[in-house]
Amino acid sequence: MPRLALYALAACVLAVAAAVVSFVQGAWIGGIVWVLLIGVTSNMAWYYHRRGRAGRRAA
After folding, report:
1. Which regions span the lipid bilayer (predicted)?
2. How many structural domains is the chain composed of?
3. CA 19, CA 52: separation in Å to the nearest integer?
4. Which range marks the domain in which residue 42 is found?
5. What global pTM score does this model have?
6. CB atoms within 10 A of CB 24
């Protein structure tokens, strides 16, 4: 797995933890922002993973 995909996956996992903490503490707006960030980082991880796999096939 490419390094950027791993970084994006780590950011996604941290954003999930932050969203859970925000919702448990009752900060709904903050939790929603973290959920949106989860969507962005998961898409980045998927994109970089696919890009790396396609690059290995072409080589």
Report:
1. 28-48
2. 1
3. 29
4. 3-58
5. 0.86
6. 9
One-letter amino acid at 18 equals: A
Please tell me the distance from the alpha carbon of residue 54 to that of residue 34, in angstroms, as a whole number. 30
> pLDDT digit string (tens) for 2-58?
899 999 999 999 999 999 999 999 999 999 999 999 999 999 999 999 998 888 888
Rounded distance between C-alpha atoms, residue 53 and residue 58, angstroms = 9
Which residue, 47, 42, 40, is CA-closest to 2? 47
Q: Which residue type, as a one-letter code, is found at position 15?
A: A
